[in-house]
Amino acid sequence: MTFSDFGFSTELLRAVRAKNYTVPTPIQEKAIPHVLSGKDLLGCAQTGTGKTAAFALPILQKLGQEGGQGQEQEGPHPGRKEKKRAFRPVRALVLTPTRELATQIGESFREYGRHTGLRQTTVYGGVSQVPQERALREGVDIVVATPGRLLDLMSQGLIRLGAIEIFVLDEADRMLDMGFIHDIRRLVDKLPPRRQSLFFSATIPGDIRRLADTILRDPVRVTVSPQAPAPEAVEHYLYLVEKPDKAALLQHLLADPALRNVLVFTRTRHGADRVARHLARARIPAEAIHGDKTQRAREQALSDFRRGKSRVLVATDIAARGLDIVGLSHVVNYDLPNEPESYVHRTGRTGRAGLSGIALSFCDIGERPYLPAIEQLLRKHLKVVEDHPHRSGLRPGSPTDLEPRKPRAPRPFMISVEELFGGARREGFAG
Ligand code: AMP
Predict the structure, then answer these.
(1) Which of 141, 191, 256, 363 counts the highest number of beta carbons within 10 A?
(2) DSSP 8-state secondary structure symbol assigned to residue 6
(3) Which residues contact 214 (CB under 8 A, 6 or more apart)?
(4) Would you say the CB of residue 53 lies under 6 angstroms from ligand 1?
(5) 37 in a structural domain
(6) For residue 27, what are the domain limits?
(7) Residues 44-83: pLDDT tens digits?
């Protein structure tokens, strides 16, 4: 499935292409057709699944289609002489719990909607209201808001919700957690009863369901399941290494032909380029893919990798999303992800389709705090590989030196991280 299958306008498709999105994520694939058809929606999905585009793209499509640009009605202060000027009503409202989320969602609307002529603004507390007020006076089609500031601006007559066609409640469970329930009820009361409502929450316990029942009408329910733990077939190994030695360690590991075709994950685009360059200098055929590359360059890199022309593909999480590569021999976490779900997602790419897979993770001193949550989600320990030439504890005088080791009986090649870090690690799961 591609984005053009949704019947999006050329303006929207252009923006999606510029973001380098190749295929819709599962929540997008499931939700977008319903939103376009005008249905109310109860979406069970968390941040990171692509849910913003799942509502932002169809909203932009609908508002753009149904015109409304230049639709005018009386101002927010009817009857007041000085305000008697054209006023563009707000047609879509997105409520979200935090300023950070509001900014992110606003930015997404701006990027996806840049060729549509639709206008949007973001409204949140903790900053001066003057620029927000100015934007509202100039007229916007879409408002992304946190509840408190929105109510504030409404009480000052600066924004009215009487023309809202589409309402989105984002991260409903977090909203309730943060004590916004009364604010939400007050805001929903001000919305026109004839509207489309989209309700997103990572979890749907009883109180969320009851709130959803008061907002949604005959909703379609769409769920994207939380990341499933990695397949049992994957073996997980950990390499303790200092940051500057990671490239040499990767090169060392690639001397083993068992690493047939390897997907390497880095945190940043620059990191991906650096690793690919390092490998190329070592005459190991490698390519990097990430959002800075053109669609063509990405496709070329992917096709070279699939055909075995390059042995290593270096990618960021975002660039690797939606890539379907079967039969990977190894996944390497060159940088350990700080989100345990990313770890599971990355390493789940090996061990697919009944094949066994191997995940090798590099961990420098700064990344060690990420380990407990990863192991908790995996429900197993990563096996520490002691026998490699770049182990961090081996550098004399290094700040990452491990505790001096007591003499001990000969031990197997692998030990668990638990043994290595002792009491510093979180307990509470079988492993
Ligand atoms: P969200 O869950 O909305 O916070 O999105 C998480 C990240 O996924 C954001 O950085 C988006 O830019 C990115 N994203 C959303 N949709 C896609 C897609 N179809 N392909 C690749 N990346 C996407």
Answers:
(1) 141
(2) G
(3) 185, 188
(4) yes
(5) yes
(6) 3-66+85-223
(7) 887 668 899 999 999 999 999 876 444 344 444 444 433 3
Are 222 and 31 contacting, i.e. CB atoms less than 8 angstroms apart?
yes
- 49 in contact with ligand 1, CB cutoff 6 A: yes
How deeply is 134 buried, as exposed, middle or buried, from its count of CB atoms within 10 A (0-12, 13-18, 19+)? exposed
Q: What domain count does the chain have? A: 2
What residue owns the CA closest to ligand 1's atom 16? 50
Tell me, what CATH number does 102's domain have?
Answer: 3.40.50.300
Q: By alpha-carbon position, which residue is closest to atom 1 of ligand 1?
A: 50
The amino acid at 135: A
Q: What is the 126 CA–ligand 1 centroid distance (Å)? A: 27
Please tell me whether residues 122 and 41 are part of one structural domain. Answer: yes
pLDDT in tens, 387-426: 899 988 644 333 333 433 333 343 434 555 554 454 444 3
Q: How many residues would you count in the chain?
A: 431
Low-confidence ranges of the chain (pLDDT < 70): 47-48, 67-87, 225-232, 291, 295, 318, 321-324, 326, 351-356, 393-431
CA distance 129 to 135: 10
Q: Is the CB of 25 under 6 A from ligand 1?
A: yes
What does pTM read for this prediction? 0.57
Task: For ligand 1, atom 14, name the residue with the nearest CA.
Answer: 50
Instruction: Determine the pLDDT at residue 412.
Output: 39
The distance of Cα 204 from the centroid of its chain, to the nearest Å, equals 20
Alpha carbon distance 204, 99 (integer Å): 23
Q: Is 318 a pocket residue for ligand 1 (Cβ < 6 Å)?
A: yes
Residue bearing tokens 């609307």: 109
Query: Would you say the CB of residue 233 lies under 6 angstroms from ligand 1?
Result: no
